[in-house]
Design brief:
5 helices, four-stranded antiparallel sheet, Rossmann fold, Tumour Suppressor Smad4, elongated, four-stranded parallel sheet, alpha/beta
């Protein structure tokens, strides 16, 4: 792997309501302190204290919350959840993985995110930013969604809505709706119709 300068300050964040992750957090703090590294908790980040990397002790939900709350901060996920597509380090592996990080033997992988804009009468009335997915849903009636990719018309999908998912979000609603799982490192998005009333119901995977 490429050699990098190790982080000097680690933020350690256990998942809410997971006693085993809270039990491991002090061990990781002590392990890093013994090797000369500083650590802080999430409350310290909220107060504005700096951190160079964040260790999330939880599942994919915690990883996405950390990425949303602290954009741009490198994340390491130690899996305490049911799904571990983003939190890829298992609980017993943490000393080995942290040892690689403090030795500079790691790489930082960027993931694509989504910008969403809501328009009305040719005016933008709301904007948003999403890490995992953007969902357009109907109420009690079927809706017709016209899909354009890079300004080119693709198809009209009558149904309950549409999901546009990033790789890190593809394991959530996208997967549950029959869409694909995009592996880490894929620079693209999965576009999945929700209950389409059409013979054309395949998910599209489009480049970033």
């Amino acid at each position: 792997m490429p050699q990098h300068t190790p982080p000097e300050i680690f933020a350690i964040v256990p998942a809410r309501g997971k006693a085993d992750s809270h039990a491991l957090a002090p061990q990781i703090h002590a392990w890093l302190h013994a090797r000369g590294y500083a650590t802080i908790d999430e409350a310290s980040i909220r107060r504005g204290e700096p951190a160079d990397a964040l260790v999330a002790l939880g599942g994919d939900g915690l990883m996405m919350r950390m990425a949303h709350n602290y954009p741009g901060m490198p994340l390491l996920g130690i899996n305490f959840g049911k799904v571990g597509f983003l939190a890829m380090t298992e609980q017993l592996q943490w000393p080995e993985v942290l040892n690689e990080i403090v030795n500079g033997d790691f790489d930082i992988q960027d993931g694509p995110t989504l910008d969403a804009r809501v328009g009305s009468n040719d005016e933008v009335v709301d904007v948003g930013w999403a890490i995992n997915d953007v969902v357009v849903r109907s109420g009690i009636q079927m809706v017709d969604i016209e899909l354009y990719v890079d300004g080119r018309y693709v198809n009209t999908y009558p149904g309950d809505g549409m999901i546009v998912a990033s790789p890190q979000g593809s394991t959530a609603y996208c997967m549950a709706a029959g869409g694909p799982i995009l592996t880490a490192g894929v620079s693209g998005f999965a576009i999945t119709p929700i209950s389409p009333h059409s013979p054309i119901r395949s998910t599209l995977v489009v480049p970033e």
